[in-house]
Structure formats: C-alpha cells, structure tokens
Amino acid sequence: MDSLFKTPGRLPSLPALRAFEAAARTGSVARAAEELFVTPGAVSHQIKSLEAQLGFPLFVRQGRGLALTTEGTRLAVTLNRLLVEVGGELESIRRERERPRLTVSALPSFTARWLTPRLGRFIEAYPEVELWVQSSKALESLTTGGIDLGIRLGPGNWRGVHAERFLDEFFMVVASPHLPGGLPRTPAELAGRPLLRGDGEPWKPWFDLVGLDLPEPTQGLVFSDSGLLVQAATEGQGIALARRSLVQDDLASGKLVRLFEATLPFQWSYWLVTAAPAPHRPVLQTFIDWLKAEMLTSLQSAEPDTQPRPCAD
C-alpha cells in the first residue's frame, strides 16, 4: 500500500493555499471570499500569512486590482490544476457509488465477433453497471483515454501497462456451407478457389503446415479487419483462414463450417490490459471474472479438437 503514495514536501497552510488559489483565479479578494464563504478580510489575512511563510510576494497591487507575480503565477497554475483533478476524482467516485461505470476497449474484430454478442448477459447479471464499449487497436488509449480495461492481441510485453494473458489463438480454414462451386474436400482443392486474405495474416504458413506447395495468394479480397473477413466468408464470398475466436459463434450456428482438421497456432495471444499498477475497482474485477467465465464456457462448448488453449491464472 505504501508504494502507492509519495511523501509530500513541506507545505504551507492548506486553507491559505485555497484562499490564494481562489483569489488568483477570480482576480479579486472579494469574489474569492464569496466563493469560500468567508470575509474579504479573512482571505487577505490568509494570503499575507502564506506570503510570510513562503518568503516572497504572490501579488502586486495594480490600482484596485491584483496582479500575480511570476512566482505567484507558477503556484496558482499548479494549485488550480491539482484542485481540478481532486474535484474531478471526487465527482467520479460519487458517480461510481451511485452507478458503477466501466469503459472497455477491444479490437474491432473481437468486439464485433465475440464480445458484443455476449454483453447482454453481463448487463442482465449486473444491471447497475453502466458499460461503455469502444473499438480500438491503440495501446495508448489505455493510459491516456480513460479506458478501464483493454482486450488486445499481441506479445503482451508492453511497457507502462499491466497485461494478463487471456486466450491463446490459432487459425483454421472455414467457409460458408453454401459456397458457390461447393466445398473443397482436400487442401489440394484450394488451388484456384477464392481465398480471402487478412492484412498481416498470410496463407503460406498454413499451406506449409499441410504440405501444400502453393504460393501466397496475390489476387482477390484483402481485409484490414479480421471481422470483415469472417463476414465475407459467411456470405459465401470465399474461403477464409480465420482466427478461431472470431468464427466460433458462426460455426455453432452453421453459418460457417470448418473444412480441414489442420490448425495453425497464432504467434500472439489475447491479453487483458489495464493501467499499471492495475486499479483496484470492484466493478473492473467483476467484469474480468465474467469475461473469463464466458471464455471458459465458450471453449467447453467448442468441439474438443478445435479448442484454443485457455490461459492459466
């Protein structure tokens, strides 16, 4: 617990700092007094006391008004920023106590194909939670964008965040059962068929895995989003080499069929990513536990020979 806190340097009177910040922001002792529900004399006394403690002036008088000195400006800007942050955090705590809010960010493909179809069950189980879902590939949003939890696909060794491995992934070949021209019966029959491609997800490693001497496809559709690739496959536009998590529900519903037994392990895994150190928020832990339970249920319902490996705690 101690590692979360730093020992502050020697500070002047906090009421004096508050009076000075109000006077600096409003530009008036009288308006600062109204804001703080004290007399103008009390504000003036606090400012003089603060200047005496610091050993340098914070204001110079200009006619009937006040002007900040260089040192006063620096102090006023810092105090204002800190008080605004404290006020914002207190408001956030109040809102969370009234209605817990959680912001989750996941890859567009994973959001559309796996997460969104299941979120209704979370809301049904936890109707008091306000759940915000964003689609993003950017890791930076986890530290600058107010994101509570990110679901990311990658190596997991990112700096400045806490990452817990969630799911190991692999590729499998799938197609619509109504594919024009019929379904290929052997891998060799893929030659000359429309093969859907994902950006950065080549077919060649799978060809090598099954012993096919075929080059990487260079014609046809290429998708930058893996979710769109799967959608094209369900519509019969071609045969896809797709990640198992993205086609799981379509295989269960019969929109897609798995063509061959061979599966190709993916170099990356899915990770649950939070800011470091991970914030202790009950609503966040509840959602993480729910995610793990949903993934375990989905793996148990998959056919045994096509299950991705769940990650150990």
Q: Strand fraction band?
A: 15-25%
Give, in order, the helices and strands: HHHEEHEHEHEEEHEHEHEEH
Total DSSP helices: 10
Shape: elongated
Number of strands: 11
Instruction: Return residue spans where pLDDT drops below 50 for at least 5 consecutive residues.
Output: 304-313
Overall mean confidence score, pLDDT: 85
Q: Give the helix level as a range of percent.
A: 40-55%
Supply Rg: 29 Å
Straight-line N-to-C gap: 23 Å
The biggest sheet amounts to: 9 strands, mixed
Structural class, from helix and strand content? alpha/beta
Q: In a few lines, what is going on in this structure?
A:
With 313 residues, this protein is of the alpha/beta class. It has helices spanning 14-26, 29-36, 40-54, 70-98, 108-125, 141-144, 204-209, 226-234, 244-253, 282-301, and strands at residues 59-62, 65-68, 101-106, 130-135, 149-154, 161-175, 195-198, 222-223, 239-243, 257-258, 264-275.
Tag the structure with descriptive keywords.
two-stranded antiparallel sheet, 11 strands, 9-stranded mixed beta sheet, elongated, 313 residues, 21% strand, 42% helix, alpha/beta
Give an overview in words.
This protein is α/β, with parallel strands linked by helices and 313 residues long. The protein has ten helices and eleven strands. Strands 3, 4, 5, 6, 7, 8, 9, 10 and 11 form a nine-stranded mixed beta sheet that branches. Helix 1 packs across helix 4. The longest helix is centred in the N-terminal third of the chain and has 29 residues. The two termini are 23 Å apart.
